[in-house]
Queue: 4 jobs
Job 1
Amino acid sequence: MAGETQSTTEATHAGTEVPTEHHSGPFPPFNSETFASQILWLAITFGLFYWIIKNVAVPRISGILEDRKDRIAGDLSEANRLKEETDEAIAAYEQALAEARAKAHGIAHDTRAKLKADNEARREKAEAELAKKLAAAESQIAEVKSQAMEQIGDIAGETTSALVEALMGKAPTKTDLSKALKSAMD
């Protein structure tokens, strides 16, 4: 049995044992005996990777790039459209502002002209009323003056008579008084 256990142990270890001898040959990828199989597997692997990249990765990447390009183009066209709308809105605003300013200037001019005409009419009315009052005052002054001129002789006569009487003690006669007043007035 001892012999059996030893052979079983050797059999189980035979597949798992690592040879203890050193490899004295070149590095396996550089071994010239395996070049042909390495080149074959390199060509198969390269072809497989090339086919996967060409048929799977590149179309996906191309689709993503195309989507991005379309999205960027759409965004740029939307930005240009919005910019044009903004420019149109600014132009419309400036036009409306210019029209409003012109309208305001027109209203101000019309209002100034209306106020000037109203003031001119009031001034003319006031001047006409003043002219009437002035004419009435001048006629009243002329009337008072004529009345005063008519009475000046009587007043002057009475005053002169009172002065002569006060100075001389005796009042002058009416004929002497009227002669003296006539000669003084002429």
Job 2
Amino acid sequence: MLEELPSVFLVGPMGAGKTTIGRLLAKQLGRSFVDSDWYVESQTGADIAWIFAKEGEAGFRARETRAIDELTQHQQIVLATGGGAVMRAENREFLHQRGIVVYLNAPVDVQMARTSKDKSRPLLQQPNPRQILQNLYRIRDPLYRQVAHIILPTGHTYPRHMVHQLLQQLESFLVPTAIDRATITTDSGSSED
């Protein structure tokens, strides 16, 4: 029955688990998994840090928008987007109109724990990465919420348990009364990720 679902698009801050959850979800659904950042890199032939250095954030965001427009037109995929993808209105529209958007909501402490040693994130190569994450969360959280059909907190349970919760919520989109895709929020358990 879940094979009838449209594509699933994951949004949320860096370190929320979009790639981990996306891969597990795609496996459960028997679908292809795509990461929009990796897609941009494969199309460009350069990594995100290089694109930021040479073209600035605006150049990267333009490439990201083209990628999201193209990828959201694919049928029955699981797509993990970059943390800043929601900053552009056209990206939010592509995502919200073309599939089911899941916001993986990770608190700043979870983001810090998961990204502290990652040197591949250009926005965090600053003296105070916690402050940057807090500022980004404050700006982007309302946009994630605006585009989301499902809001799933992360950092409180194991990824496989989160995918199980998510699959249950996705089933509700197969019920005719859920066609309007009201936003669903889930409380998660207390065990650690």
Job 3
Amino acid sequence: MTETTKPTQPEEEKSSDAKETVQGILDFGSALTRTPSGTVYCLTIIGQIEGHMTASNNTKTTKYEHVLPLLAKLEESEEVDGVLFLLNTVGGDVEAGLAIAELIAGMTKPTVSIVLGGSHSIGVPLAVAARRSFAVPSAAMTIHPVRMSGTVIAAPQTYSYFQRLQDRIVAFVAGHSNISGEKFQALMLEKDDMAADVGSVIYGEEAVRLGLIDQVGGLSDGLSCLYRQIRERRAEKSAGAGD
């Protein structure tokens, strides 16, 4: 009779990790990776940032009601050492996008963002919210004034609200990147760059030159930076424990 043996503990853990990774990708477009350098949670921000209104069924979305509690969980998790954000978004709901960006910026854990296909409109604050931002050379970022759909009341209060909302975006981007608020505002109002519209489209290397993005680079660059942040954070914790 052939004797059967139970799987070893490491094999059980590998199976559990694989199931967890697949489920995370299906549910949130995310994956948890454990390496000797640290445990990294990879989160994608894609398609349209969905706010209070549900997008159509054929639209790929990032839902803020999913992302906000997830970010809070990652910040508190002892298992996760750093978070990698992969961005390819057309923008979307301004307040939902700003809420996500503010939460990312408020994280104490190492964070890195990489702009891939594009990070347009409210995707710009999302790109600069991480501790270090990267963009591939082919990445595009569209910068334009605030837009609003639906019924708009033509009253002074409406225009004031638009301006104050735009000021919040400008202040956030300027506060989390190396571009000045004046320069970012000027890119918003550029008249010669977009057909039948106001604004600018900038690409990877130009975004770095303007100070909007920290560095041109791809996945390996982003991960190297994230692991470096993790090592520095561990060293700070060790030094603090020794005092």
Job 4
Amino acid sequence: MNLDLVFGALADPTRRAIIERLRAGDLSSGDLAEPLPISRPAVSQHLKVLEVAGLITRSKSAQRRIVSLNADKLSGATEWLLAAHEEWQQRFDNLDDILAEDAPKSARHPEDQRTN
């Protein structure tokens, strides 16, 4: 899987809107284009980018072109993000531990500071 293509395709808000609509089920190209504030040729270009990234497939059904979401490609991107998130979280936890060790005792427990 080419994550660069997937994330590049998802970088555009119009393409994310298309993906979001396809999560509910297959739609025709015309149905996808209808609510978008861009021309049908522009929608077609966005669909081409999503198709090259493997996020959608297009097929013909009579006179209509049906667009389907390829959730497997989204799953691959999700797996990568989750793995990266776990690594980043571990690094932040390690940093918290280091900062806690270096902090003066009074700064760690301000409630322990008492004035007599």
